[in-house]
Amino acid sequence: MTHPLLDIRNLHLTMTSFDGAAHVLNGIDLTVNRGEIWGLVGESGCGKSLTGLSISRLVSTPPARYIDGEILFEGRDILSLPAKEVQSLRGKRIGMIFQDPTTNLNPSYRIGEQLVDVALAAARHDASILDCPPNASRRERRRAARRLAGDMLDRVGIPNAEARLDNYPHEFSGGMRQRVLIAMALIGRPDLLIADEPTTALDVSVQAQILKLLKGTVADHFIGVILITHNLGVVAETCSHVAVMYAGNIVESGPVAEVIERPAHPYTKALMASIPTKHSKRGSLNGLGGSVPNLISAPPGCRFAPRCPHAVEACTQTLPKPVQVGGTHHAACIRLTETEDLVDA
Amino acid sequence: MLYFILRRILLLIPVVIGLTVIMFAIARLLPGDPVSLAAGPNATQSEIDALAREFGLDQPIWTQYFDYLSGLLHGDLGTSLLTRRPVAADIAAYLPATLELVIAAMLIAVCIGIPLGLATAVWRNRWPDYLSQVVAIGAISMPRFFLGLLLQLCFAMWLMWLPLGGRLPIIVIPPPTVTGFLTIDSLLAGDMHTFVTALRHLAMPAIAMSLSPLATIMRMMRASTIEVMSQDYVTTARALGLPRAKIILKYIARNAVSATLTVIGLYFGWLLGGTVLVETVFDWPGLGLYATKAIISQDMMPVIGVALVIGLMFVAANLVIDLLYGVINPKVRYS
Fold it and tell me: Which family is it part of (chain B) (predicted)?
């Protein structure tokens, strides 16, 4: 039996703070296959970045504690692997891109050197990356890594790549730096790419270029991508699938076209309704009332219930299980059939 | 780059003027008459006047000052009232000893303080960190001369591993002077025996002087390392699978050192000015001892000269530090 690329099952994570333990991930289920681009959307603090960091096991424990669940990467549970093996996955099998390109490159080293270091680290687990004989000397390996770094920069669309290897990060623009970071994340030929708000800090025009680049990468290398964002527009444009998160739960997931066209969960509907369109009147924004609940002593029921216009007594009793809406489209709400009518009415 | 250095050298001019003006003012304001002190207890008034005339001390102070400045342009730092030797020659003889001591102390402080600071940051809030914190506070708060005495008691009197003081025993012939540093000169001359002897004499005063900068550098390095460790690019480096040792020793250390450099520069000047006590305790023939003798006999020319040289050294040390910033931080280099 072949395993999916990534299979997160019932992931629970608590964070210890001075006020007590906050239950920030409350049973995450997510399956990513090769060739899929999953958009992970939700408002700030819903746990989408923590989910991404957990996959590379970059959340420091303590203060965090995984109390239940597993993260299966090709069938192996990342949370129970020895640290050495997790490190061999990072960069080599799982690549990551972060939000702010201005702070994610080391200011003191030329970008060529940083790329070479990542390539050499990845080559320790798979020598074929460098495309040089296994008994090659250190110098030869470095030279091969540098050649590869130049190729990667060229591939992510940096003009005059070979020469720019010798530039420092501050000599690049924001968009170019994000390209460098993408090259860095891809240089080890990962199978899974986690992009945590890769375009949030960029201009809209540069955003589009970066997203196109990501999409092209998936097509070329047949890898899986998790794109963490709070921008539904980005998801609609780039992703094949989407998972909507609210306060530590995935409330709705499925193919992007279905979820966006026929949102089932009240939270997704509210998110969709809050996007201004060209038809909406000037000065009228459809925000969602209330705010994210306190996760330290969260009630047992649906975490969206306090803000949900359709909530009933039963909603506050137990956490709703994902219900199939159609195909692979699921939503975690006990009032799906009722709300369907309510919206249509 | 050249422009940067030139600008810094131009900045020396106000430093020199400021230092000399202040020193001249202090010399005039101090009670007592240095000339009669230098002339001796049995000198007559006419002998004292003759001495004052010989050194130009009967002139108004601003004439004395401009005479001094014009002498300075020719590298003349005046003449000692007491010994009648040119101050410049004296300083040239004593400065290398002090520099050797200060540089040795700074080398110890930097070579131990920086790795220790890095290590305590990486293993913070565990027992090596707490231990180093206690030792650091002890080292900073203990006066250097007292520490010197303790070292002498322990290593010279009880254990008898190291000599009590001095730079070289009288019976050892010093190596031919090249740099004025006995350790380097003896190495250049290929004289291993003298080298070891000089090193053994250098060890205790250098350690006594190094402890407080060592502790400060260690704490600074610890603080800046902790700050750098929380930077995004460190997370990125971890996320992309770089080995932990490489992240710490290469990606973190370089950025953390750059914040610590300032302290190193300041301490260098501070040590230069503060060698007096250690030089006295260890009988080290350096600028500190020279200046102390001059101050006691109110011989102002050597005092002004020493202050000037130390001031210039301080500026030079900070220039070197500023240049090092450029080496470590490429952003500084280009702006």
Answer: Belongs to the binding-protein-dependent transport system permease family.
Q: pLDDT of A26-70, one tens digit each?
A: 888 888 888 889 989 888 878 888 888 888 888 887 788 888 888
Stretches in chain A below the pLDDT threshold 70: 1, 278-292, 338-345
pLDDT at B180: 78
**Nearest residue on chain A to B253, alpha-carbon basis:** A108
Residue B27 has pLDDT above 80, yes or no: no
Q: What is the DSSP string of A2-52?
A: PPPSEEEEEEEEEEEETTEEEEEEEEEEEEE-TT-EEEEE--TTSSHHHHH
Give the nearest partner residue to B242 out of A95, A117, A170, using CB atoms.
A117
Is the CB of residue A316 less than 8 Å away from at least one CB of chain B? no
Q: One-letter amino acid identity for B182?
A: L
What's the complex ipTM? 0.81
Residue matched to tokens 């050499």: A120
Contact B258 A108 (CB under 8 A): yes
pLDDT confidence tier of residue B335, bands split at 50, 70 and 90: low
Domain B87-332 matching CATH 1.25.40.10: the answer reads no
Does residue A118 lie in a domain region?
A: yes
Domain assignment of residue A180, yes or no: yes
Highest mean pLDDT: which of A11-15, A339-343, B25-29, B220-224?
B220-224
Determine, yes or no, domain membership for A316.
no
Alpha-carbon gap: B328 to the closest alpha carbon of chain A (Å): 7
* A105 lies within 8 A of chain B by CB: yes
CB atoms within 10 A of CB B306: 27
The residue ranges of every structural domain in chain B are: 87-332
pLDDT in tens, B53-104: 877 777 777 888 888 888 888 888 888 877 888 888 888 888 888 989 999 9
Q: Which pLDDT score, from 0 to 100, does residue A343 have?
A: 46
Domain that holds residue A153: 102-189
CATH number of the domain residue A128 falls in:
3.40.50.300
The alpha carbon dihedral of A224, A229, A235, A237 has a sign of: negative
Whether A156 is in a domain gets the answer yes
B window 14-53, beta carbon within 8 A of A: none
d(C-alpha B79, C-alpha B89), whole Å? 10
From edge to edge, which strands make up the β-sheet containing A94-97? A94-97, A192-196, A224-229, A37-41, A241-246, A249-255, A329-331, A323-326
Asked if the Cβ–Cβ distance from B236 to A121 is below 8 Å, we say no
B190: left (phi over 0), alpha (psi -120 to 50) or beta: left
Closest to A222 (Cα-Cα) out of A29, A9, A88, A32: A32
3-state class (DSSP) for residue B77: coil
The yes-or-no verdict on residue B111 having pLDDT over 90 is: yes
Domain count, chain A: 1
